[in-house]
Amino acid sequence: MGKNSEIADIFDKIADALEFSGEIIFKINAYRKAARVLRELSEDISKINPAGIDGIGRGMAEKIQEYLTTGKIKKYDELISDIPEGLLELLNVPNLGPKTLYLVYKQLGIKNLSDLENAVNDGSLAELPGMGDKKATNIKKGIDLYKAGKSRIPIGLALPIVTEIISALKTITNKISPAGSLRRMKETVGDIDILAADEDRDRILETFVTHQSVKNILLKGNTKASVIVDFHNLQVDLRVVDKNCWGAALVYFTGSKAHNVKMRGLAKSKSLKINEYGIFRGEERIAGKTEEDVYRTLGMEWIPPELREDRGEIEASLTGKLPRIIELVDIKGDLHIHSNYSDGTDDIKTIVLAAKSLGYEYVGICDHSKTSRIARGLDIETLKKRNAEIDHLQTEIQGIKILKGMEVDILSDGSLDYPDTILEQLDFVIAAVHQGFRKNVTYRMKKAIDNPFVDMLAHPSGRLLSGREGYDVNLEEVMEYAAKRDVALEINASYDRLDLNDTNILKAKSFGARFVIGTDAHNTGMLTDMRLGVGMARRGWLTKKDIINTDKWEDIHLRRRRKR
Ligand code: DGT
Ligand code: CA
Ligand code: CA
């Protein structure tokens, strides 16, 4: 959708420039919101009336029209005329706010990332008024995070392009699969690996390197090719192997490296050799056609890719103790969805119908609470109006239970944003920290967990894959506390969050915690992020019984009653 994303990009840049020049947050957010709406729009903006789109105000609609007729937006040209190129990109460095950026630009003439790094390293940054060593160290940490984040991308962003490439190749061969970190559902991927098996290698490789998403061809040989696609400059490697080696190659190229190393050691202990071509006894190839075949030959059950990290899966498989990990089809409902009552884009009915078409038995509408002004949090009157609308809608729509939920802010003193008398009337209460990331977060979260009406703690670590550091919190202490008081921990499936992530899930599970996988969707398109959350849960060895939204609503409801 060319024009939609062109205009969205300009709106985001205007927002950046406004932020840099200290404009009020309200104006900045109008641009960010419009950018998001444009990106999520399914129609081509040049074919419809911008003024008629939900979430696009009059001012924004005029600017869209201006771009469609003149090819530019005057406001943008004015704003950026005296800001050096590349400077605003630094707004993405964690721990470096717009005010500080303005300061370092004016005082030290910093124009790009390497200027900034130099200023950190030679101490000139720390010497600025109001700065000091501590802040400078934090910015240095931010730079490291930023650089690391740049080189890996969230799996949720990589998946669509891989799916597209694979479906183009599926017209030629059925034996094709993602491999590497993508197949293991790691939260971020460095590059993308695809494996295919086919006689007609040339045709597969040729179709691959001429795919419309390919920007650069790095290498094209007889059995493999590497390209850069026109999306975050991501590298995609394709290997084509012989059909007889499919299973062995898939094990090898799925990794992880640590898993492979242990597999090799195991083979060796049985006087066998394993590589990407198969398992060998001396010169004789004794397995390799399928993955099951490879694992079985070493005395193991097939291991789901998400577990292949050398975290005990090989030992468990050898002794027949692999857990039966959760699958997407086990999920009976999504408990964390925002409607257009707060900052979502879709109305409740649209959401409910979308959830129903996914086969869900229940759907939790959870808008923001009143203190979240930026997210248009609901005051008590509006909340009551929304709940009445849900009651009415429920009489109209059968076959799915609509839950009156809320994502309630944990305030600076640890109290919740609504009184208990209001919380009591809700079907599902999510507690979440949205402000004061460095202020007593452990204490505040524990206090929220103590409230008998709280069902779940949202995105417990608070970090974003795009580079925001999480809360200053003792997460283990909170997880253990939540486990003891039967408050669920969220596995937030939104692609930039994936929070809890796999390692935190494993930790929380060791305390006996239970979990909810929620998408935090702000539009119905994001409901399918559930698969990312399920991927995280699988990497955390979770089974159906660990995850609350695999239960029937009646069971969840009973449990809530007992707890109170
Ligand atoms: P990434 O790309 O950083 O997100 O992580 P991976 O796991 O996709 O790593 P990548 O792309 O370097 O390699 C893909 C898979 O190929 C990896 O998971 C295991 C296998 N592999 C690659 N190089 C080696 C190696 O030197 N030894 C072994 N045993 N396996 C390797
Ligand atoms: Ca890879
Ligand atoms: Ca690779």
Q: Residue share in helices?
A: 40-55%
Q: How many strands appear in the DSSP assignment?
A: 17
Main sheet strand line-up: 11-12-13-14-15-16-17
CATH superfamily (homologous) name of the largest domain: Metal-dependent hydrolases
The major β-sheet equals: 7 strands, parallel
The CATH architecture of the largest domain can be named as Alpha-Beta Barrel
Category from helices, strands and their pairing = alpha/beta
Strand content: 5-15%
- General form: globular
Distance between the termini: 50 Å
Number of domains: 3
Number of helices in the DSSP assignment: 22
Low-pLDDT regions: none
CATH class of the largest domain: Alpha Beta
Look up the CATH topology of the largest domain.
TIM Barrel
Alpha-carbon Rg, integer: 26 Å
Give the names of the bound compounds: 2'-deoxyguanosine-5'-triphosphate, calcium ion
Compute the average pLDDT. 94
Descriptive account of the structure:
It is a single chain. The chain has 564 residues and is of the alpha/beta class. The chain folds into three domains: 2-150, DNA polymerase beta, N-terminal domain-like (DNA polymerase, domain 1), CATH 1.10.150.110; 154-318, Beta Polymerase, domain 2 (2-Layer Sandwich); 328-563, TIM Barrel (Alpha-Beta Barrel). The protein has 22 helices and 17 strands. It has helices at residues 2-20, 25-40, 58-70, 74-80, 98-108, 113-121, 132-151, 155-170, 180-183, 201-209, 246-254, 257-269, 291-297, 313-318, 348-357, 380-396, 420-423, 441-450, 475-484, 502-510, 530-539, 553-563, and strands at residues 153-154, 176-179, 188-189, 192-197, 214-220, 224-229, 235-241, 273-275, 278-281, 284-287, 333-337, 362-368, 401-409, 428-432, 456-457, 488-492, 515-518. The strands form four sheets. The chain has a seven-stranded parallel beta sheet. Helix 1 (2-20) packs antiparallel against helix 2 (25-40) and helix 1 (2-20) crosses helix 4. The radius of gyration is 26 Å and the shape is globular. The two termini are 50 Å apart. 2'-deoxyguanosine-5'-triphosphate (DGT) is lined by residues 180-181, 186, 189-191, 193, 252-253, 255-257, 260-261.
